[in-house]
Design goal:
Helix content: 25-40%
Number of domains: 2
Largest sheet: 3 strands, antiparallel
Distance between the termini: 82 Å
Shape: elongated
Radius of gyration: 26 Å
């Protein structure tokens, strides 16, 4: 017994333990609070049992691998790993339209292409497109994806991160509600329209000064 801590006893602090009152050997004190950051704990518990799954939970191996997947993602075009959900949107940085179907041959010239929606931002990751794909017009159906800067979490094992990732609109609405998602998107689109107008005005002024010979 450690002074001031009382006897080591259950229940197991892992909320996922299927038999929290069974030590399966010997109870073990939990590590310092600094090592428990981000982990879900059973309320009032001070020890863990000796089951293999609970040992792994508090060693943080699963958590570490999940966190690595979160921060590495696809280095060229990071999309939110499926285990994670959007907890809070802080800002939206960009938008693109991703195809629902793989690229195919360009339609015959006599087949009219439907007008494209007003896409702002990138359509897809150009580094992954071959010359044929980059040489065709955009057709087929699309889904919207946004660069979301915010807080993300995974429930099992619990991990939390603040970062930026491509998030499909459908997942964004599911995670933060339709009303909140649309509010953040409208703010982003309003800011972008204002910035675009300012940039266009600056370019126009520069062209006029150049034409007039102003140094």
């Amino acid at each position: 017994m450690e002074e001031g801590r009382g006897p080591r006893c259950g229940p197991c602090a892992n909320p996922g333990c299927k038999a929290p009152d069974n030590a399966s050997g010997q109870w073990t004190w939990l590590p310092p609070a600094t090592e428990l950051a981000g982990l879900d704990l059973r309320e009032g518990a001070a020890c863990r049992c000796n089951k293999r799954g609970c040992q792994a939970y508090f060693r943080g191996e699963k958590k570490r691998k999940l966190a690595e997947a979160m921060f590495q993602g696809n280095t060229n075009d990071p999309c939110l790993p499926k285990q994670y959900k959007v907890k809070k949107v802080k800002e939206i940085w960009g938008v693109r339209y991703a195809p629902l179907a793989p690229f195919g041959p360009k339609p015959a010239s006599h087949v009219p292409c439907p007008p494209l929606p007003l896409a702002r931002g990138r359509y897809t990751n150009l580094s992954k497109m071959n010359p044929m794909e980059r040489g065709t017009t955009l057709h087929d159906k699309f889904l919207s994806e946004y660069i979301v800067y915010g807080d993300f979490e995974c429930k099992a094992p619990y991990t939390f991160a603040t970062s930026a990732y491509w998030v499909p609109l459908s997942k964004l609405i599911k995670n933060v509600t339709r009303a909140r998602a649309m509010e953040d998107i409208e703010i982003f689109e309003g800011n972008m329209a204002e910035l675009r107008a300012q940039e266009a005005e600056e370019i126009s002024s520069e062209d006029e000064d150049e034409a007039a010979g102003t140094p």
